[in-house]
Write a structure and sequence with these properties.
Rossmann fold; three-stranded mixed beta sheet; five-stranded parallel beta sheet; binds zinc ion
Length: 591
């Protein structure tokens, strides 16, 4: 029931304020200027192509062009005009979608060559009533190749009385032969400030009170689209039940958009900076209980980090329209306390966390883990500083002898962290510990390899395709006897799934399109991938522990242990990896 209400309200605003003239098109000044020029100097292309993202006004623009081309003005004698009158029979019929000479077709639903043939058959007949016969083809990139070819013939020699207006979201899927015969018009994402102005004026006309922060939220969520924004405004009206007091509040818009209270996201962010894991988890739980989606919370944190980074580079950005009061005040305050490097590291952790929260069986648990990881970051000096300190001062930094003031990794935290002393050792161990330096990049088989040419690549493909059980079996339970593309032979351990070989063969065929023979052997074969990795990790760890810098670090943090060693060449990267990647093959080694 509610849905029907919202739908019908949606039609009201988006239809009611649908632009019918070029001047009413919001935020498309450049395109409008080009178009009106072309019409005024009577240099009309045979085919227009309107390009832009979904909901940006392509169809509205196409209809305005159709009006402009066919308007005869109030006295019925006018010629094509950049300012269609809106009252002549043609203008009215086009607006009402019932003009005999304006033919609209949605290529998304009619992609075939016969649909286009039918349409093109009509091209040779003169328009019945209007100056031009106008074909509007929406989502033109969806046409089949043969349909494009049929269309192309007409585009090469179009009759004088015919105009084509194409609209598309994906230019790259439109053949160049077609593109080259059209004049191209790009519709831009409408800037947040322009959207806000537009929505404000509509709200005034509708006699609805909307706070500036609510407008900003709606404009941001609209992401450049007038239509999406109007639909949100409609929903906000319905959602807030404004019939009584005529008010749309931030809380109701937040609620509607599934956003967490922005102020509380900032609170959460400050807890993270201060290294207050418990407070951060409590805040997350409170947000979760009040209906916020864990993924949206991580998304909001990412947005804050992005915002702070922008502010850090350009404090003037705070004054651009569309920013909420909170973003301005708390943002500036925070941006002054954090540096770009720190923000970059937080971004990395959040970005990886975002993926984890999205795929984990429990989003809220995964989000908690991400937050804990971030609070741990605050306890370590930035990696570059740590290395510098160790290089210049030796291990004594940890014992408080250092005269150089030290800061925590996430900048000077607002509360909590007493300045100066470096963190206690057990936390260091918990966060993955000190990383080895300067190792060459080893084999890292990555995801997109759908044409695996080694056994490792096959395993990586299974990991990538989220066939975790099979991947684990291949890593730990399988001794490879021989590998060539299309044929794998291995010995399967007693704990490997019975049908492992069949499943591997079947899935490989599905993903690669080729036939794969996967056979079992009783020959001993090579050591498992897991044991090879473990041996390598052990060697790396021993090597790392012997490194003078690591030795110094271990002295600097009494009780610290080397837990994981990963393969990165830069210390900065090492640190990030330690935080984001508490690795699978951990074995603790006491110094
Ligand atoms: Zn007219």
């Amino acid at each position: 029931m509610n849905e029907t209400v919202e739908k019908s309200t949606y039609r009201v605003l988006a239809r009611k304020y649908r632009p019918s003239t070029f001047s009413e098109l919001v935020g498309q000044d450049v395109m409008v200027r080009t178009l009106t020029n072309a019409i005024e100097i009577d240099r009309l292309p045979h085919a227009f192509i309107l390009i832009g993202v979904r909901g940006i006004g392509k169809t509205s623009t196409a209809r305005i062009i159709a009006r402009a081309l066919n308007c005869v003005s109030t006295d019925g004698t006018g010629r094509a005009t950049a300012e269609p009158c809106g009252v002549c029979s043609h203008c009215v019929a086009i607006a009402e979608d019932r003009h005999v000479d304006v033919i609209e077709m949605d290529a998304a639903s009619r992609t075939g060559v016969n649909d286009i043939r039918e349409l093109i058959d009509g091209v040779r007949y003169r328009p019945l009533e209007a100056r031009y016969k106008i074909y509007i083809i929406d989502e033109v990139h969806m046409l089949s190749t043969s349909a494009f070819n049929a269309l192309l013939k007409t585009l090469e020699e179009p009759p004088e009385h015919v105009k084509f207006i194409f609209a598309t979201t994906e230019t790259r899927k439109v053949p160049v032969t077609v593109l080259s015969r059209c004049q191209r018009f790009d519709l831009r994402r409408v800037e947040t400030g322009v959207l806000m102005d537009h929505f404000r004026s509509i709200a005034q006309k509708e006699d609805v009170t909307v706070s500036e922060d609510s407008l900003a939220m709606i404009a941001r969520a609209a992401d450049g689209s007038v239509r999406d924004g109007l639909s949100l405004l409609d929903q906000a009206v319905a959602h807030a039940g404004i019939q009584e007091d005529g008010q749309i509040t931030e809380a109701s818009v937040q609620d509607m958009l599934g956003l967490a209270d922005h102020g509380r996201i900032y609170d959460l962010f400050e807890h993270l900076l201060a290294g207050k894991a418990r407070e951060a988890i409590d805040e997350l739980a409170a947000l979760y209980n009040s209906g916020a989606d864990p993924l949206a919370v991580i998304g909001d944190l990412l947005q804050i980090v992005h915002w702070l980074t922008r502010l850090n580079l350009d404090p003037g950005a705070a004054d651009s329209p569309g920013n909420s009061e909170i973003d301005r005040t708390r943002g500036i305050n925070l941006a002054q306390r954090l540096n770009i490097g720190t923000l970059g590291r937080i971004w990395q952790v959040l970005l990886k966390g975002n993926e984890e929260v999205r795929t984990a069986p429990s989003g809220i648990q995964a989000a908690e883990m991400v937050l804990i990881r971030l609070t741990l970051m605050s306890e370590l000096p930035p990696p570059a500083d740590l290395i510098r300190m160790l290089q210049t001062q030796g291990p004594s930094v940890g014992s408080g002898n250092s005269s150089e003031p030290q800061r925590t990794a996430l900048g000077s935290a607002p509360t909590g962290q007493s300045s100066g002393a470096l963190p206690a050792a057990p936390r260091l161990a918990a966060s993955g510990g000190i990383q080895a330096l300067a190792h060459p990049e080893m084999e890292k088989i990555t995801a997109e390899d759908y044409n695996p040419d080694s056994f490792e690549a096959v395993v990586a493909l299974f990991e990538n395709k989220r066939e975790g059980l099979i991947a684990a079996a291949l890593r730990g339970q399988v001794n490879l006897v021989s590998f060539e593309r299309g044929h794998i032979c291995f010995r399967a351990g007693s704990e490997a799934p019975q049908d492992l070989a069949n499943r591997v063969a079947r899935l490989l065929k599905e993903w690669t399109g080729d036939q794969w023979l996967v056979s079992l052997s009783e020959r001993p074969g090579q050591p498992t991938i897991r044991s090879v990795r473990e041996t390598a990790a052990r060697e790396r760890r021993n090597e790392a522990i012997a490194h003078p810098l690591v030795q110094a670090a271990l002295e600097a943090f009494p009780g610290a242990r080397v837990e994981t060693v990963s393969e990165r060449s830069l210390p900065e990267e090492d640190f990030k990896n330690a935080i984001t990647n508490p690795d699978e093959d951990e074995k603790e080694i006491e110094p």
